[in-house]
Design goal:
alpha/beta; Rossmann fold; seven-stranded mixed β-sheet; binds the ligand O=C(O)CC1=CCC(=O)O1
């Protein structure tokens, strides 16, 4: 399905696609947008059942979410783009760069994983959400998105992300959890040709730094940066992540 999207920036600039974490929408990238727009035509999109994109019956696999992006790129006539994603959005980026290398120019992968040590937590979360809805898990899930220090200083940001997660379609969210339970992108990483930067949140409990170390070690030539943040590093440490994005994507 073709996802809801926003395409902004100079029409003749290179295109940068921004992919979101599970339970978030295009607003995830608000802090980066002003610095990116002078350099890029920025394409933001929502995963199925998130933001403006309708839900589809599940279960999903990351392949399905990546196919949605390919359908969108084809519809917009975009043959080749750079891609930056956080968490689930970065999993989509890895899939695209590994399976359709001709479509991906440069890649940034933030706070993400190529495979989880156990599928069970994702099966459990999917079952909970199918039974009691996204709002029932939002408070607990969001505590892992920010460090306690950041959450104390910015309770309004935490509340906004909790409210956003609560609005995600229950079946779509659960089906994305099914995708995470089945996730294993390790075999595609060595095939990625796009110059890649991987970003770790030093305090990320959701996708701990050793997950990004594995990714950086598996993608030829990839460079790993660590920032002082938890899972949503581009929200918690916006200037650091924006700098990494611009250094890798805009400096030619
Ligand atoms: O929501 C979480 O718990 C962490 C996460 C995994 C994939 C993603 O996008 O976020």
């Amino acid at each position: 399905m073709r996802p809801h999207h926003e395409l902004t920036g100079p029409p003749d600039a290179p295109v940068l696609v921004l992919g979101n974490a599970l339970g978030t929408t295009t607003t995830l990238w608000d802090a980066q947008l002003p610095a990116l727009l002078p350099h890029f035509r920025v394409l933001r999109y929502d995963h199925r059942g998130h933001g403006g994109t309708p839900s589809l019956p599940g279960p999903y696999r990351v392949d399905d979410l990546a196919d949605d992006v390919l359908e969108l790129l084809d519809a917009l006539g975009l043959a080749r783009v750079s891609y930056a994603g956080v968490s689930l959005g970065a999993m989509v980026g890895m899939w695209l760069a590994g399976h359709a290398p001709e479509r991906v120019d440069r890649l940034v992968l933030c706070c993400t994983s190529a495979a989880y040590p156990s599928a069970q937590p994702w099966h459990d979360r999917a079952a909970t959400v199918r039974a009691t809805g996204t709002a029932s898990i939002a408070p607990t899930v969001v505590t892992r998105w920010f460090t306690p220090t950041y959450a104390t200083r910015h309770p309004e940001v935490v509340r906004a992300y909790e409210a956003g997660l609560s609005t995600v379609d229950d079946e779509a969210y659960a089906s994305c959890c099914d995708a995470l339970a089945a996730l294993d992108l390790r075999s595609v990483l060595p095939a990625i040709e796009a110059p890649t930067v991987v970003v770790s949140g030093e305090h990320d409990l959701a996708t701990p730094p050793d997950h990004q170390r594995l990714i950086a070690d598996s993608i030829p030539g990839a460079v790993l940066h660590t920032v002082e943040a938890a899972h949503l590093a581009n929200v918690e440490a916006p200037d650091a992540v924006t700098g990494i994005l611009l250094d890798h994507l805009a400096a030619r």
